[in-house]
Design brief:
The structure is a single chain. Strand 10 and strand 11 form a beta hairpin. The protein is elongated. By secondary structure, it is an alpha+beta fold. It is built from 18 helices and 19 strands. The structure holds adenosine-5'-diphosphate (ADP) and magnesium ion.
Amino acid sequence: MDNKQTHSFQAEVKQLLHLVTHSLYSNKEIFLRELISNASDACDKLRFEALDNSALYEDAPNLEVRILIDKAARTLTIRDNGIGMNAQEAIDHLGTIAKSGTKEFMGRLSGDQQKDAQLIGQFGVGFYSGYIVADRITVESRRAGDSAAQGVRWTSEGTGDFEVEAIDKPARGTDVVLHLREGEDEFLSAWKLRSIIGKYSDHISLPILMQKEEWDAEKQEQVVKDEWETVNKAAALWTRSKSDITQEQYEEFYKQISFDSQAPLAYTHNRVEGRSEYTQLLYVPAKAPYDLWNRDKRGGLKLYVKRIFIMDDAEALLPSYLRFVKGVVDSADLPLNVSREILQESRDVKAIREGCTKRVLSMLEDLANNEDAAKREQYAAFWTEFGSVLKEGVGEDFANRERLAKLLRFASTQADDGAQTVGLVDYVARMKEGQQAIYVITADTLAAAKNSPQLEIFKKKGIEVLLLTDRVDEWLLSHLHEFDGKPVQSVAKGAVDLGALQDEEEKKKAEEAAETFKPLLERIKASLKDKAGDVRVTTRLVDSPACLVSEEGDVSGHLARLLKQAGQ
Ligand code: ADP
Ligand code: MG
């Protein structure tokens, strides 16, 4: 290669450079995440190519990233001993946009600064993000397997063009040297860099090394020592094989990410392959957080892309009714710079959400239906903490409605203590001969539900009625019309038809009574003209003279009271 060639950036690169440096400034520290991720990719590529050519490791088989600070020169260097680039690769990869994703992005640019800045969040910006903090970047690289003399130096101010020259580079791999802009000296602080690495790159499986610093009392300053230490944890728990992880390690990790001091109730760890590739490590906590009721609260999942931290509380990864679940999703498909807005629309995310939802439901089913009584008790404990939130799912998650309905637990007229322990499967299993519906009653309190006159006939006939006293129960009923082919019927609504449960004589008596009392009913109806829609003779009462019921399809008395309280 002739020494020093000047090349012009591809037109799209110029546009992208301008956009990146201007619109990502508010979140400038991400440049380090991007450059470390490139270093990590380069090491992955070397590892892959070395599978059939181990000579590529030369004499340095330990893949690693080193971060070097030069305060005098005001440079920050990200060094890796990965695959490296030859001159042509440097020209191609750093001077043009070959990635289809970025091309698509360029095609969608509108020229409107604000809109474009939003767009950029959806695509990886990669190498060029270095120009947010640097006014010149020098890349020195040598491809694995090439001779020391085949090294390349690429350098550019990130405006119109870049220079390439041949250099001697004995060490394999790539140095990316950032010449920091005026005012960006914070990135010369080892402490600052460590904190950024801790935030974004802790779980990169490669060691990231920095030089130790020591306080020199004589010079009165921090001096850099010739001793290196690993500053990231370098092993993401979820990337390890299940069989290598102990329960204690799983629980410790949970405590770290959830800030919960108690062990979780259950967890699940899987690698999913196929249409969408990702790893999930999901936990069900033992205790509800104080703000569980806040539906705006973001979910508890952390999103990683190829072991690089992207964001906390990625609510798009699970439906809102599973917002109590904590854990990590690591996707192999999403771009690094994915934004919350994009997460909501991405098809990959949709697949992840469906997959995670199924996993959480399986975890709960496993507890609820376990042969081990201790596990079933854990489910009861779970229900006490999170049951009311899970109920939201019946209305929100149509695809899983049946599974969710089986997980519901209610208080019932068959259990004295009022504990929510009866599932719909149990209820249906012990329905009376000829009983066609699942009977429920809603009320503000358990006592009100239990003593409702509307229950009299059911008590007399020994028919079980579920007692619903949670605030979300009315809403639940408006979505849970049937279970296992049996209609769910509120005993406080309409003319409860006991159907086959009523014998012929009772029916006849009721009809006769309706005839006899017709004139009386007319008079009561007339005097309650604006207050009651209808007045009927009923067989549902045993001891009480009268009771109020709602019309079928109307809001129930309980809901009407709730709405009134809420000022509606
Ligand atoms: P992406 O990483 O998404 O491909 P980048 O803009 O981050 O996009 O990087 C562009 C390309 O430059 C990479 O695909 C790779 O070929 C090359 N590259 C960047 N950094 C390195 C590195 N440290 N070692 C080897 N190649 C690199
Ligand atoms: Mg990259």
